[in-house]
Amino acid sequence: MLGKLSGFDDTIVAVATAPGLGAIAVIRLSGSKAFDITNALFKGKNLLLQPSHTIHFGSIVSEGTVIDEVVVSLYKGPRSYTGEDVIEISCHGSPYIQQQIIDATTKAGARLAKPGEFTQRAFLNGKLDLTQAESVADLIASNSAASHQTAMQQMRGGFSKELHHLRDQLITFSALIELELDFSQEDVEFADRTRLYELISSSTTTIRHLIDSFRMGNVIKNGVNTAIVGKPNAGKSTLLNTLLNENRAIVSDIAGTTRDTIEEVLNIEGILFRLIDTAGIRESNDTIESIGVQKTLEKIKEAGVVVYLFDANEMTLEELRQQVASFEADNINFLLVGNKTDIAGEAAIRAKFSEIPGILFISAKNHDHVNDLKAALVEKVMSGDINTEDTIVTNARHHSALQEVLKSLFDVKGGMDNGLPGDLLALDIRRALHFLGEITGEVTNEDRLDYIFSKFCIGK
Ligand code: GDP
Predict the structure, then answer these.
(1) 300: CA distance to ligand 1 center in Å?
(2) Res. 349: pLDDT tops 90
(3) Binding site annotation covers 440?
(4) 8 A C-beta contact, residue 220 and residue 271
(5) Distance from C-alpha of 149 to C-alpha of 216, rounded to nearest angstrom
(6) Are 227 and 213 in contact (CB under 8 A)?
């Protein structure tokens, strides 16, 4: 188990609300002296005599000066966020008042909290496991409905539950194997090989599913880079503006005027699409244009999804076929969008391209079928058998540990196929358990914890 971390016995203090001016601010203290320190500064009731989970009005007085009228909430450990005695002082939101109260508490014996230290204490006191603690940071940073939902699901322990289940399975496995080792002289097999094999197979499937969910998790947490590409005058800028419903990119009749990449973000059904408007793809001798094209090609490779926009009146069937072949050769996740259906009419245009499946036809200028395009974008990135209600891995640290778990499980499976002795199988199982434990925090060390929590902001 974990040793106590340095400074763990201190009573810590920080502003828990956002920095700057607000109507009210909350200052939080946690630790064995939280009640004493606050009581020494509080004019009103004797806080030491009040029951836990109550709130009290009074003032904070430091060195004879009244700093502010406040409301103090009391949480006796272990029934608190950190598991320690916690006090929350709600004061008026001025940064000056906040600073004065913080100064008064530090003079009275509290220490300024390090980033994430409150949540770190909650973890160390067994209030949260590591994945839940990390999801607190994600929850605070969530900026779309989907990222909020996954962080919330993790904080409530969805992911940990799944991992604990796996861990239990593997522990059963290794217990059976190890029992066998104790009786190795007698040449008995307690561990039914077929059952062991099934256990490993089902664990492998679960892990693989979690690993696969990371792509989706990344989309949910960080958004997806979306490149809108096509020849000059296809209507890329117009589409971009239609999508964003504002006119930031330059729309012009002169071919090739959008030379730079512009990034805008679109929120569709809670998923963030980072739109990169690019110069057109075409062979070019013009140097400036070439730079634009070069950038486009780089951007396409980075993009999670590429919207290939073409003028459906100008584009020939053969040209489009070639374009599709080149996207497929480069393994690009693309969406074909034929624009300007208002010119020749949608029916005629559909007939022209009927041989190529999956094209969306729109008129960016008239906003025709732009909603279909948005729905198709969501569908593109949600592809696969993962939906937002599943447990989704959003954290790169978890992702890489899961890959190690999978590797170890493969070794076990391979070992069983090759009739490896039980003690060697047990070693690989223990390796898998080790990496699982790293995710939930059952196996960890002080440096790693400090690193994880240092990515939080102060006061969390
Ligand atoms: P870009 O070079 O690909 O960014 O193309 P633009 O967005 O600058 O559009 C080129 C020209 O096509 C402009 O004159 C637009 O007004 C026009 N355009 C864009 N979308 C449509 C459309 O759906 N219908 C019609 N008729 N014209 C369009």
Answers:
(1) 21
(2) yes
(3) no
(4) yes
(5) 13
(6) no
Protein residue with its CA nearest to atom 2 in ligand 1: 233
Q: Please, is 293 exposed, middle or buried when counting C-beta atoms within 10 Å of its C-beta (0-12, 13-18, 19+)?
A: buried
> Which ligand 1 atom lies nearest to the CA of residue 255?
2
With a CB cutoff of 8 Å and minimum separation 6, the contacts of 323 are 308, 310
Q: How far apart are CA 91 and CA 432, in angstroms?
A: 49
Instruction: For residue range 303-321, list pLDDT tens digits in order.
Output: 778 899 999 999 999 999 9
Structural domains of the chain, with CATH: 12-128 (3.30.1360.120), 145-219+395-441 (1.20.120.430), 223-381 (3.40.50.300)
* Residue 233 annotated as binding site: yes
Distance 329 CA to ligand 1 centre (A): 29
Phi-psi region of 3 (alpha: psi -120 to 50; beta: other; left: phi over 0): beta
220 carries a ligand binding annotation: no
Query: Measured from the CA of 240, which atom of ligand 1 is nearest?
Result: 7
Structure tokens at 302: 């980075």
Q: Chain-wide mean pLDDT for the chain?
A: 79
Q: Which residues line ligand 1 (CB under 6 A)?
A: 230, 232-238, 251-253, 258, 339-340, 342-343, 363-365
Ligand 1 atom closest to residue 230's alpha carbon, by position in its atom list: 3
Closest to 426 measured CA to CA, from 205, 206, 164, 196: 196
Tell me the pLDDT tens digit for each residue of 197-255.
888 888 888 888 888 877 777 777 667 788 888 888 999 888 888 887 643 333 333 33
Q: What is the pLDDT of residues 140-158, one digit of tens each?
A: 666 666 666 666 666 666 6
Q: Please give the Cα distance from 87 to 76 (Å, whole number).
A: 8
Query: The complex's ipTM?
Result: 0.98
CB 436, CB 405: distance < 8 Å: yes
> 233 CA distance to ligand 1 centroid (A)?
6
Residue 239 CA to ligand 1 center (angstroms) comes to: 8
